[in-house]
Amino acid sequence: MRLVVMGTGPFAVPTLRALQASEHEVLVVVARPPRGRRREPAPPMVAAAEELGLPVWRPESANLSESQERLRGYEADLMVVCDYGEILKDATLGVTRLGGVNLHGSLLPKYRGAAPVQWAVLNGDAESGSTVIQMTPGLDAGPSLGQSRLAIDPHETAGELEERLSEAGAPLVLRVIGELAAGTATPELQDKSQATKAPRLSKEQGLVDWSRSAQKIKNHIRGMAPWPRAFTFVPMEKGEPLRLVIDRVDVVEGAGAPGPVAPGTVLEAKERLVVACGEGALELLDVQPAGKRRMAATDFLRGAAIKPGNSMRTDL
């Protein structure tokens, strides 16, 4: 099959490599254009395409009439889209013989949107996966052409899960393209009643709410890694509270205190850093104080005047 591959971020790179190594022909890699005037590093798909010797095109929008005309000129059989960053119109999808397919990092119809992997981890899901859909103008709403499933490790971050899903998605895309070429693909309509949203995260959402249970806060911290990263504020003897990024934690089994304590209260601050939650407690393992490198919480304690009874701030 003659393919136009559209993608910008890292999730699409394993699929591009698999397509280039297959019997199919990648005609061009289409990526989103540079933002602003500053010179930025090439996005992952552009870097991968250049490494593979593939032509790259970065239009302002694939939905412009001149872009559609150029895409039509490739005379491609199929458009393969993944981690691209723009919703494609019907007229854009119609420039190839078989339209477009999209690799999405969730078990659709669950988690439609820009951050499906992050929301799966944030919600503490035990399972995730990838779906290849036949593209429509709706957001991740097209018929499913195939799915693959992965168990989520209870300690892995959204970034780690996303990397595994991106690798597992490549053979799924190849399988679907093979079925489309053979005329054996069987599209299945998504159940709209089961659809959930996975909107893009913001930096502010990284703020830890200590009133939640220890397990939910751990899921929050896992889901915020590697971006925007979870954080809290630590009281200092002098000056403003210190912004502390939290990268890795573990639930402390059987943790307790002599009496009722407010969520966010430091329970231990010597051999380890333990903080009370709305239910249970968390041991902070890896942290990054503002203006410093990431470090073990034990190293942070050596230079920070934190004592049991201090309270982590849950407000900006």
UniProtKB/TrEMBL annotation:
Highest taxon of the lineage: Bacteria
The keyword Protein biosynthesis is annotated on this UniProt entry: yes
Residue ranges occupied by any Formyl transferase C-terminal domain in the UniProt entry: 200-304
Domain Formyl transferase N-terminal: from-to ranges: 1-176
Similarity comment: Belongs to the Fmt family.
Protein role: Attaches a formyl group to the free amino group of methionyl-tRNA(fMet). The formyl group appears to play a dual role in the initiator identity of N-formylmethionyl-tRNA by promoting its recognition by IF2 and preventing the misappropriation of this tRNA by the elongation apparatus.
Protein name: Methionyl-tRNA formyltransferase
Species in which this protein is naturally found: Pseudobythopirellula maris
